Amino acid sequence: MFVSSGPRVGRELLALTLLLSAPSACAGKETETLETEAGATDRWCDLLPREANTAFERVDMESDWFEVYEVEDGVFALTEPNQFQETISYLILGTERAVLFDTGLGMTSIRAVVDHLTRLPVVVLNSHTHYDHVGGNHEFDTVLTVDTPYSRSNQRGQPHSEVAGEVAEESFCEGPPKGLDTELFHTRPWTTSGTVVDGDSLDLGGRLLEVLHIPGHTPDSLALLDRQGGLLWTGDSYYDATIWLYVPETDLDAYEHSIARLSALVPSVRRLLPAHNTISADPAHLSEAARAIRQIRNGSVQGVERSGKRVVFRFENFSILTSRPLLDGKRGIQSDGGSGLSTWR
Ligand SMILES: [Zn+2]
């Protein structure tokens, strides 16, 4: 059986300035932006291709959009560096089937890239259902999700009005992908073919992936663990940049718990594979993130106030961008879904 059940319980810089004055697109995950001596600010584009990624073998691909790297044997990172989110989806191969962990921005076909890389049957699983991780879900027949009201709402897709800033001129380094109508761009609806819960295992043939339900960033956040290979896919719960924990659907209690759970895995994990910017991160950073969120919440570190009631806290390898209402213990409505772009009013 492919899915076996578990117990049913259950961005980097030498930055000198923070540029998140508006909740719109251009500063992106990289809120910390290099300020030159002349005072001009460089964009993420100037950091491309990121050294942390070019350390891996680039796969030759006929795509004007996706840049694909082989991170490990049978593990491909499908990166979208030319849009500021720098979203990363992962194709993970076994001998019998493959898992596609996230389907990207949905601005051009990810299916074409996947078909180039494998002939195995592909099962889609999402690290969470923010718009920038489910964009290509509609291209696949088999999509497994965590069954939460939040995920169900997001299956409707996101209208153009919600994601218009994501296709604004300044959101791209070299313009949109060929064929994308930026006036109409929206996230397409998708359907699920099954659900997963915490503790499930996905048997790909020669590779077993454990599903960890790690709510916090969103109610439906997942991590994947290849215990034998020492690999941990962290989605948006950890990456080496500014971690977004400010939207109303974020739950800081849950995040603190989930990140502590992930950091307990650090001794047995060789590599983190995050969903933004860089395709590999040091597992030790997870422990730093666990400590950071505790310090933020107990008031032992100071943040800097930003627009949209947001507050940013800077640490050595990452920053955490949260919001005043969440720090004050408020909870947003989770059942309405969310694109990942909304701020508190
Ligand atoms: Zn997200």
Give an account of the 3D structure:
Helices cover 16% and strands 23% of the residues. The protein is built from 8 helices and 20 strands. The chain has helices spanning 51-54, 111-117, 131-134, 149-154, 160-163, 252-263, 284-297, 324-327; strands at residues 3-4, 17-18, 32-33, 57-59, 67-72, 75-79, 88-93, 98-101, 122-125, 143-145, 194-195, 201-203, 208-213, 222-226, 231-235, 242-245, 271-274, 304-306, 310-314, 319-323. The strands form 4 sheets. An 8-stranded mixed β-sheet has the order 4-5-6-7-8-9-10-11, with no helix packed on it. Strands 1-12-13-14-15-17 form a 6-stranded mixed β-sheet, with no helix packed on it. A 4-stranded mixed β-sheet has the order 16-20-19-18. A hairpin with a 4-residue loop joins β14 and β15 (231-235). α6 (252-263) runs antiparallel to α7. The longest helix has 14 residues, at 284-297. The radius of gyration is 19 Å and the shape is globular. The protein binds zinc ion. Zinc ion binds next to loops.
Summarize the structure.
The chain is an alpha+beta fold and 345 residues long. Helices cover 16% and strands 23% of the residues.
Contiguous runs where pLDDT drops below 50 for at least 5 residues: 7-28, 31-41
CA-CA gap between termini: 47 Å
Report the CATH C-level class.
Alpha Beta
Strand order of the largest sheet: 4-5-6-7-8-9-10-11
The CATH architecture name reads 4-Layer Sandwich
Overall, the morphology is: globular
Q: Count of helices?
A: 8
Q: In sequence order, what are the helices and strands, one letter per element?
A: EEEHEEEEEHEHEHHEEEEEEHEHEEEH
Q: Domains counted in the coordinates: how many?
A: 1
